[in-house]
Amino acid sequence: MNHTVNHPGPIARLVTRAPIHLALLLIGTVWLVPTIGLFITSFRERADIHADGWWNFVREPRFTADTYVTMLTSTGQTESLFGNFLNSFIITIPATIIPVTLAAAAAYAFAWLEFRGRDVLFLAVVALLVIPIQMTFVPVLQLFNFTHLTGNFVGIWLAHSAYGLPFAVYLLHSFFAGLPRSLIEAARMDGSSELRTFLRIVLPLSVPGIASLAIFQFLGVWNDLLVAIIFLQSPDLQPMTVGVLKLLGTYGTEYGVLSAAAFLTMAVPLLVFFSLQRYFVQGLLAGSVKS
Amino acid sequence: MSRMRGHFGPWLFVAPAALLILVFIVYPTFWTMRLSLFGGLGFNFNKFVGLDNYVKLLTNDPQFLDLSKFPPGGAVVNNIFWLLVYTPAVIFVGLVVAVLADKVRYESLMKSVVFLPMAIAATAAAIIWLFVYSPDPRIGILNALLTTFVPGAEPISFTGSVDLVNPAIIVAAIWINAGFTTVVLSAALKGIPVEIIEAARVDGATGPQVFARIQIPMLAPTISVVAVTMIIYVIKVFDLIYVMGGNNGGPLGSARVVAFSQYVETFNNGRAGYGSAIAVIMLLVVLPFILLNVKRFRAEAGR
Prior knowledge:
heterodimer; A: mainly alpha; MetI-like fold; 2 domains; 15 helices; about 0% strand; flat; B: mainly alpha; 12 helices
């Protein structure tokens, strides 16, 4: 009796576990269907979109890429989002490289160098992890106006870098501090300078941690809306998220173009996610103290 | 030379990051506290008003806090509604997915599916859910299901209704963040030693009993970490409401939250002192969690 309870046959097992599979199927459906709906809508003819729901596409599968052409060129009545798409890259790439580089240097000092005030400074970094960035907007905007940094990308690169730094330093510190002490000390015994130890020993051994952080920062900046609408007032500089928001405000019923724009915004993060999921999840778990 | 390097070397590593943090976070934070005591209309901070902004916010701004009716309203109350509904719900969903997926072979696929929305912009997620909620049954799948399966039902305008807009946006937020709670709780679940669960099984504990008496208590510390992260998310939530609720923050401003008021007052209404006061209130609400983080870190470092 006890034997059958603990190790039921395959059919009995399937029956008793059916509720689990059903529940997971339901959850999976709720999590996938909204995105699939957007994806299918983005490839449908304008007339089809207004005739019936996207879930009817199986009945008369007709696809077009016109929505994407309209969205990326100014052939339709909506404005082109191609510039916004490029801007997202121009904003995101430096705003990832700068903080990751600066954070790696700082995290190395916090983890392996002795200096006065080190522990207090690092506690300050921890304290800044969850500070609302709303506290910074007006003074930073004043600073940008004063230094003429509102009309170009430099301001937003610096702002995104600074906002990402506390978490970046915190995350890399935990990776660096986990390296074996003997390795660092051996390098120092061999007369390696601190810079050399950092570049030749610590960095190569921390590639997974740095990759996690870079992905996290890249997605954070790519997906940002708030910082961009505040610091980039010129339409020529705005990223994809702002472009999509404007499209929604002006042509909210142009469902095809709107869904194509939203999907293109998602495409880059999804590519990153599918190719580097392991690092992404690792970074998230390591940094789960931050919002 | 090497002595000098010993003194200044570490600072060369720290200085660039420290400088950016000082200029863009630390100095602005203190400056905003000062600005919150000024009128700041059109970003002109020449009129000192003392605590007037705070007094008006808490006693005379129905869009921010309205205690004159029942139930009370305004952005603060709405944010509290989020805290009470969203936080437990997103943890519950994450727990359910983590526990159920643990029992099947397609666990990693299941977790990837739920985690996917974490990667995309809240702006894109907001558009996805605006489609789902569309009052037009040819666009919105919810209203299509409703009008097909409930005879005589009229389409519902989820985001256009004062009563439904908040639950509707909260569902979208759960859809976005359940991946986070799932992954973190799942990792903690795997950390519970198999022997403990097997011992309980041998003693005759049923599946639900193992879950309630062993797994939940052992997950408690992780649940509290996840809860803090989600509470901080709620205090800062902006994009989702700005995109799904529009410039006005939902019908009659009914979807406004504190971060939304902060943005609209400062940048749309040009009341920068007033907006700064809202930012300071956000900081005060986050302050206990800042102290908690510092305390936690010191406890870990001391070990």
